[in-house]
Amino acid sequence: MGEAPVRVELLGPAAALALLPALVEVYRAAFGAPPACEGEQEVARFRDESLPRHAGRADFALAVARPPDPARGVLGFAYAYTGRRGQYWSDMVAAALPAEVTAEWVGGHTEVVELAVHPDAQRRGVGRALLETLLAASPNDRALLSTHREDSPARRLYLATGWVPLGDVGDGTVFGRVLRRRA
To answer: Less Cβ around it within 10 Å: N or C end of the chain?
Structure first.
């Protein structure tokens, strides 16, 4: 499949929160959470807790992909912020990975929290465009994210775009990517 023509823009916290209803619909479609099922609790957690809390973190940015005709909605999104020790995920990673890995990677890193692409737009370069736009704007020299251990399109995307597995945490694998060399 060829890459779909998309517009990717970077948004700050206020604009991201204003777009929340459209982001929720993409999240629901991408992660297969139909109404009235257990997955809907994850959608509600994303909508009511995760995104609003994360939007208040340092260097929060959301990349959003739209078709050339913006009236057609949102195709996908990714967001990140600067991760620090003392935050839940950063501390969980630091406790699980070897000390030399955490010393190099955890704290002052770009933490990619979500990458969601509507199923109608998957496998067309949208996820890659979102990720690259988000990382290009990062103020940090390292980035971290996690995904499930088993083979998946997301895992293959990360491996194909320069991410390296750093270790397993819970049921997932933490990946790191050098964004620029340290001085």
So the answer is: C
